[in-house]
Design goal:
single chain, about 325 residues, mainly alpha, three-stranded antiparallel β-sheet
Length: about 325
């Protein structure tokens, strides 16, 4: 029996087949839990049900020392970095945890942090809904509440920006890893790279193997170029947002007497739904906070409206009404 390194197309087809069967198992489990426990409880535990389905799929296949259905479909086997032995149970267990449980945990932590940092004041005003004290989400929420409660407003803003950057960084990391896989031909998943699990195919080396690898190397090179362009665009967008914040801070420092609106009937900004600060008028006559409208225009870059007659910015600070 001859063994050769599996190429990119085989690894991708194996992963796609595994994803198909994982999705089928998830849907079947969700239907069963919804029927037995009801829709309300199923909605509360949907993510946990999907996690248990994934752990069951890989626990009964990879962790138990068997091929997954996708690996059996393309006739490939797992090996350790020496490519002479099958991975140890510790390696297989590490892969299962990193592939199934770690993304679930990271998503929960980031969502809790983001909610507490960006909506902490609004959540404190509202009456808190009853929580399940034994659930992971409630533990994380209580922990993040205690941690965020000790931060000042500037520190919360910095942490919120860091969480947003981390979200984007994880997406870019996955894209970078995919491009590296297309070029190198090994480790389609980050979890397999961390666990050191490689693949060999139980078949003779085909004559098309070199052509397949060359095609994927070209795809990987193009993916890297696209990723580089995406990073440059996101960096430029970040600079524009920073410039808008600096302009707003400069305007606020130049007109301190306009910082607050007096009177109980103060007009509100339709973007933040709070009292307008440093009212700014658009050509259509609507009034916004200077920070709200500049931030919105930087987020919606194509929405900047230029005065057709003068060719200048149409956003103009006005006196408080």
């Amino acid at each position: 029996m001859s063994l050769a390194a599996a190429n990119q197309s085989q690894l991708i087809r194996s992963s796609q087949k595994d994803e198909f069967y994982r999705t089928f198992l998830r849907n079947s489990t969700n239907d069963a839990v919804q029927t037995v426990a009801g829709s309300r409880r199923w909605l509360d535990w949907r993510r946990e049900v999907e996690l248990l389905s994934d752990l069951a799929y890989y626990g009964l296949t990879t962790f138990s020392g068997y091929q997954t259905l996708g690996e059996e479909y393309v006739n490939i086997v797992q090996v350790d970095p020496t490519e002479r032995r099958v991975p140890s149970r510790a390696r297989r267990g590490l892969f299962v945890l990193l592939h199934a449980y770690f993304p679930y945990l990271v998503d929960k932590v980031l969502v809790c942090l983001e909610n507490q940092l960006e909506s902490g004041q609004e959540r404190r005003r509202r009456r808190a809904a009853p929580e399940r004290w034994w659930s992971l989400e409630s533990w994380l929420r209580r922990g993040t509440q205690r941690a965020v409660g000790q931060l000042s407003e500037p520190q919360r803003g910095a942490c919120a920006a860091a969480v947003s950057v981390l979200h984007q960084g994880l997406t870019l990391l996955r894209r970078l890893h995919a491009a590296v896989f297309y070029i190198s031909g090994s480790f389609y998943h980050l979890s397999k790279r961390a666990a050191g699990i490689r693949y060999l195919r139980v078949a003779a080396l085909s004559r098309d193997d070199g052509t397949i690898r060359s095609s994927y190397r070209l795809l990987g090179t193009l993916s890297l170029l696209q990723l580089l362009a995406t990073v440059c665009l996101q960096f430029n967008s970040f600079r524009q947002k920073q410039r808008a914040r600096q302009e707003w801070k400069l305007y606020r420092s130049l007109s301190p007497q306009r910082a607050h609106t007096s009177g109980p009937a103060a007009a509100s900004c339709i973007l933040c739904l709070e009292d307008r600060r440093h009212s700014t008028c658009t050509p259509c006559g609507h009034l916004f906070c200077w920070e709200c409208i500049t931030e919105w225009c930087n987020t919606k870059r194509t929405e900047w409206i230029l005065d057709a007659r003068h060719g200048s910015s149409a956003l103009q600070p006005v006196e408080q009404f």
